[in-house]
Amino acid sequence: MAEIETFKQENRVFAPPAELARNAAISGMDAYKALNAEFERDYEGTWAKLAKDNLKWNTPFTKTLDESNAPFYKWFEDGRVNVSYNCLDVNLDNGNADKTAIIFESDDAKVTRVTYRELHQKVCQFANGLKSLGIKKGDRVVIYMPMSVEGVAAMQACARIGATHSVVFGGFSAKSLQERVIDAGAVAVLTADYQVRGGKQLPLKSIVDEALAMGGCDTIKNVVVYKRAGAEINWVEGRDRWLSDVVAGQSEVCEPEWVDAEHPLFILYTSGSTGKPKGVQHSSAGYLLWAVLTMKWTFDIKPDDVYWCTADIGWITGHTYIAYGPLAVGATQIVFEGVPTYPNAGRFWDMVARHKATIFYTAPTAIRSLIKAADADEKVHPKQYDLSTLRILGSVGEPINPEAWMWYYKNVGNEKCPIVDTFWQTETGGHMISPLPGATPQVPGSCTLPLPGITAAIVDETGNDIPNGNGGILVVKRPWPSMIRTIWNDPERFKKSYFPEELGGTIYLAGDGAVRNKDTGYFTITGRIDDVLNVSGHRMGTMEIESALVANSLVAEAAVVGKPDETTGESICAFVVLKRPRPTGDEAKQIAKELRDWVAKEIGPIAKPKEIRFGDNLPKTRSGKIMRRLLRVLAKGEAITQDVSTLENPAILDQLKEAQ
Ligand code: 6R9
């Protein structure tokens, strides 16, 4: 495997800076090993102690882990908490009340600072407003909002009253939104009139209107609209309300609703290997515990840090590392509305310099596009900005290639900031495998070692351990507090997807391939082993895109594969058979454009195929199975060297070589 080759050749090692290591929460490899040893000695006892020390409990738990109904594990089951209380109220009691919680920077660079006291008030009023609409504990609330203080407050307000939120990324289409509203059985949608990104106003409310008009959304009683842009929007009397009206006159105090530790804090839909997105359900206490611990361990968060995670609240990274983790540890964080390339590709570096950020967490795809931009224009090169406040850099969402790692390390971190390459997933709730900035020697392209308490391992198809140096499938052997609890409405799919019988039914299957270095035991992720693509760090199911394509009346059949891409990691390549004869030339270009727009409408712009190729048929075996392996080779533009004698229709391969 190419990835393994690269890894074997990668022998640069970067030790944590001495001073950072000295003061770090986990200081040095001995401390890391000692913590691991504690977990080995007493797994449940160590988690129990951490849970007592790091969360405020309304009712303390007496049971730590219940494995009796595996894989439906329960953590801290008889304890009661409130997540919003742990993020806000605790900071009013511990001297952080006047500390800045959020430095919000809008697309057009207006800066708003919100203290913990102010955020607490805002969330309480929001929560009381939701209650006044009849929204209560256990209800599901869909949030379709831009990056904003209000977006974070919306999530916190739901948590405060025990409503389970389901945030839908603002780039998803009306159809995707409708499907999620229906699956979650949501009672309300919280949205904004528009979102503002890259100097453009993009509609949100009109997409909500469209989604709800598609039918099946009768559970929705209220649509609450945050006025971001103030432009004209459609209004449905009796259903739609301005957020400002909902919170007007509401008390600034809202007693938190104490919920069981296992109470579903949120559902977040993510792509799997079938056409239908999965509603990943997370707990309250276990989830928050790991958010807190990883803020301390992976980011080594300190009271004076200015922390910035560039993710969107529509993804898991924005949940754990914007909406919950940073607040629960009383951090000051930057929340950014816009995009990294507006008004120019120096925006991130300019913001780091202006706000004196100390911890910066972003995705490899962003880094790679900013490398390109800096190469093309010296003015947006990070060396033009004062980035000297930075002390820790992070990466998330996809493998970071060693070249991008080195550029990030040298040009952004000035060779003094450890890079935490954090491997994790929507399903894991928080970081799983990552360097610790004050302990782990880093190797570019490797996420290094599991965090304490995380029993990550590499096994073969039958669940047997694979020796270091050989590729296999990544699993987690023991349950951990922030793990997925179930798939909303589909416990059977939960068992089948993550705890397959072949592996014994109780160990967690991540869906990624990995290899451990022979000498160091360091992990390198080699990519998904299922039909899930990773485009710019966004998960996309090939089946999802195929279903969208065949839903178009022109399309007879479609197969989607990933193609390696320098900037986005992978790109989407679709092979399409039309109901009419195979188009060529301008007609092919025209139809390809139509289909791209169609997919954007069905799922969202992130799912648009970069390439569409038309054939009279797809390469199939005699039994009618599409040979995706061949399609992947064709997509890469490589010559087919495999035996194609089992193909029903080898001549078709020539047609599919060229993109339209
Ligand atoms: C947090 C997040 C999860 C998938 C995961 C893997 C890929 C994430 C990675 C990484 C290599 C890293 N992934 N982080 N691969 N190195 N540091 O991204 O969640 O959107 O659910 O995606 O992303 O393939 O399985 P999610």
From TrEMBL:
Its EC number is 6.2.1.1. Catalyzes the conversion of acetate into acetyl-CoA (AcCoA), an essential intermediate at the junction of anabolic and catabolic pathways. AcsA undergoes a two-step reaction. In the first half reaction, AcsA combines acetate with ATP to form acetyl-adenylate (AcAMP) intermediate. In the second half reaction, it can then transfer the acetyl group from AcAMP to the sulfhydryl group of CoA, forming the product AcCoA. Its cofactor is Mg(2+). GO terms for cellular component: cytosol. Residues 544-625 form the AMP-binding enzyme C-terminal domain. It comes from the Bacteria. Keywords: Acetylation, ATP-binding, Ligase, Magnesium, Metal-binding, Nucleotide-binding. The modification N6-acetyllysine is found at K625. Mg(2+) binds at V550, V555. The keyword Disulfide bond does not apply. It comes from Herbaspirillum robiniae. This is Acetyl-coenzyme A synthetase. GO terms for biological process: acetyl-CoA biosynthetic process from acetate. Acetylated. Deacetylation by the SIR2-homolog deacetylase activates the enzyme. ATP binds at G397, E398, P399, D421, T422, F423, W424, Q425, T426, D512, R528, R539. InterPro entries: Ac_CoA_lig, ACAS_N, AMP-bd_C, AMP-bd_C_sf, AMP-binding_CS, AMP-dep_synth/lig_dom, ANL_N_sf. GO terms for molecular function: acetate-CoA ligase activity; AMP binding; ATP binding; metal ion binding. NCBIfam families: Ac_CoA_lig_AcsA, PRK00174.1. Residues 32-87 form the Acetyl-coenzyme A synthetase N-terminal domain. The keyword Oxidoreductase does not apply. Residues 95-480 form the AMP-dependent synthetase/ligase domain. CoA binds at R197, G198, G199, K200, T317, S536. Belongs to the ATP-dependent AMP-binding enzyme family. It is an enzyme of class 6 (ligase).
